[in-house]
Structures are given as structure tokens and as C-alpha cells.
Amino acid sequence: MYILIIAVIVIAAVVIFSVQNAVPVSVAFLTWKFGASLAVIVFLTFVIGIVVTVLFSLALRWRNAARRRTQKAESQKTRHNISPES
After folding, report:
1. Structural domain total, the chain
2. 75 assigned to some structural domain
3. Which of 11, 38, 66, 72 is deepest in the core (most CB within 10 A)?
4. Is residue 4's pLDDT more than 80?
């Protein structure tokens, strides 16, 4: 629930900032140039940041899940190899 509240606050802040700063700007990166309002630039940057964060998060979750599966399989294999002492 807290994450949803924080997300709404961040989105509201981005929207307010974008509306108040709607002047045209030019962005240049290497040989690429892009001109648009600052609101569009801020919004696109925000969306790209969210996408990158989600992708990294999914990659880490996938890696941790694979690690857990491997550890579980090794643990079960070890349990089967140990014979009870009588």
C-alpha cells in the first residue's frame, strides 16, 4: 500500500513539474538532436527510468529464483545421498 502512495506522489510531482515547465528545449546526445517541450522530455525520462528499473528488478528476481532452485536441488540431492546411521 505504501508503494502505491509513494508512486502516486512521485507521478503527481512529475506532472506538476512538467506543467509548470512547458518551455521548448533541445536535447543533444552525440549526433542525435531532439527538440520538444520540457514537459515531454521530463515525462519520457521518467518513463525510461521506470522501464530500466523494472527490467533490472526482474533480472535480479529471475537470477535469485534460479539460485534458489539450484540450492534446493542440491539440498535434496545431498539428503538422498546421506544414509541414516543405525
Report:
1. 1
2. no
3. 38
4. yes
